[in-house]
Automatic annotation (TrEMBL), chains A, B, C, D:
It comes from the Bacteria. InterPro entries: Flavoprotein-like_sf (IPR029039), FMN_Rdtase-like_dom (IPR005025), ISF_SsuE-like (IPR051796). Residues 1-123 form the NADPH-dependent FMN reductase-like domain. It comes from Cytobacillus purgationiresistens. The keyword Flavoprotein applies. The lineage of its organism: Bacteria, Bacillati, Bacillota, Bacilli, Bacillales. This is Multimeric flavodoxin WrbA. Keywords: Flavoprotein, FMN.
Amino acid sequence: MSIAVIYGGTRPDGNTETLTKESVQGLEVEEIHLKDYFIEPIVDQRHTSEGFQEVKDDYNALIDRILKHDVIIFSTPIYWYSMTGRMKNFVDRWSQTLRDPKYTDFKDQLSRKEAYVIAVGGDQPLMKGLPMIQQFHYIFDFIGLPFAGYIIGEGNKPGDILQDQKALIAAEQLRKKLKEVIS
Amino acid sequence: MSIAVIYGGTRPDGNTETLTKESVQGLEVEEIHLKDYFIEPIVDQRHTSEGFQEVKDDYNALIDRILKHDVIIFSTPIYWYSMTGRMKNFVDRWSQTLRDPKYTDFKDQLSRKEAYVIAVGGDQPLMKGLPMIQQFHYIFDFIGLPFAGYIIGEGNKPGDILQDQKALIAAEQLRKKLKEVIS
Amino acid sequence: MSIAVIYGGTRPDGNTETLTKESVQGLEVEEIHLKDYFIEPIVDQRHTSEGFQEVKDDYNALIDRILKHDVIIFSTPIYWYSMTGRMKNFVDRWSQTLRDPKYTDFKDQLSRKEAYVIAVGGDQPLMKGLPMIQQFHYIFDFIGLPFAGYIIGEGNKPGDILQDQKALIAAEQLRKKLKEVIS
Amino acid sequence: MSIAVIYGGTRPDGNTETLTKESVQGLEVEEIHLKDYFIEPIVDQRHTSEGFQEVKDDYNALIDRILKHDVIIFSTPIYWYSMTGRMKNFVDRWSQTLRDPKYTDFKDQLSRKEAYVIAVGGDQPLMKGLPMIQQFHYIFDFIGLPFAGYIIGEGNKPGDILQDQKALIAAEQLRKKLKEVIS
């Protein structure tokens, strides 16, 4: 039992990363920082005669790494009330994977995992971050990935998150829960 | 009085583009297809000692073009219940522009324009597209750009949108409204 | 083929009623003004040993009338960003009907009808009314009633809605659609 | 410094009440169970020549009691993805109070208090309860009452909430926070 964390942010030691590390400390985790990889935005070829063309970038390798784990954590700062564009580009590409003959069991594999969202924002995230949570809900529903929970934290400057007691306690609870699942 | 359209999709003659063209037909429009430009995802340097570093890509040139117009239409297919990653990356960069000494009047300029959203999706967009509209609402509120309206259409295959009478009529109404504003 | 309209408002010739009448003009309609009936708020007896007790009020008679029709229109002014308390009390009672031996086929009957929502509000209803639409979506999903569409209008003073061209055109389109369904 | 709790539910020892009592245990609290009072649904007389007419029910007495406190907790089971009809009818009446010469400082008084929402639901409340939270956000924003936080719990049968560790810990945190504020 192991965990993949997909980071959508860019700051070293950003608030979202800090909160996420609190949540997975001491557990078996593979961390993927999307900023370190090259991922093309999707080109919608669902209805072209040839269908989707293979893309030469890091996307498939990341999917392969993620699929090895049992828990997937989407860790994203809230930029403009939603996940980062980087993370959105990653998710958008799922439309291609769903039609990729190399990944015919993509949905089936995801259905046996569970997903968490950890997100930190600066402008009333517990209110204005809710449409993003609803979108993750729709996304995971469509792809058949059980949505097991989320943590929303508040912060702007690096380190701010350490003042958000509620988020820190939620991270601690999540860690306990993940620990039980894993052991 | 003129209109900038920012396209977030990738398909030639996609449903969203078709619906948007219905909305602006015969009017003075500058069309910007984000897929034709190179835009880096934001690197959050809000709190670094040097602040944001200049990025060598097409972003600023696009901002300059958009700022010349009075109406901005955000035209995006609904990918995974939200705007496309391409468009999100474009919006994310506004955080940089807000702190860019070359754009000190960015918010002020936007406050004298008005924005529309035109979006087409395939999975109950009139329901499951609503969190995206709420996000645009928060986004425009934050940046001070008046949100003048939106059209949500339904379609998957190219051409589907031509069956969505409701969306087509809304596009026609929008065109009339824009025409009045412009003349 | 016929239509039941459930009105949640209280004003004679209120904006929501006006918009609704535009939508059903000339069609076979049974109008139910909740304000003219006595409906007890639900008492949650789902888990008491005796279960729900019969309530002596007008609720069941209204359900019987509604179930005779093929289309149900929920017509509510937007009070405080949601349906009126009166309409909410009516909906809340469905939890009782779902367990009422006299209505064992309640969900089954509803599944063969279709629902519309018509709502008018005064404070940015096209934005701030969206959580209400999402709730109707969840409500209709749970009860198995197909959600066929909605119209959101803007207005405060009686008569304001006649200035909302977009809502009026949507009402006209809905009327045409209903007419086709009925004939 | 003291707390008013407004209960919208009907079950003795229901899940929402249990979670709320955890949150305020040992603190100075005045509890108001809406089910024990008679509150008329609002009749919208905002634009009649006479304006709102006095209503003979328990509403004003409850408002008077609530206004004495510094913290207001809205404690409602989630019925059909929203607050109960009873609580909605109570909130709807604020439109009258806002125009009542006896309450000219209603908004002003509320602006110096803070509000919390505690809600328990049975159908994915952490996802499907979010539109309700957004509505409370809009409601409190409009009335000028600072929205200090919310807890969403999960449960159906009485006692279920005691299995929701996350909600219980959130209640404990809220109690600590309220205790600090009060002392």
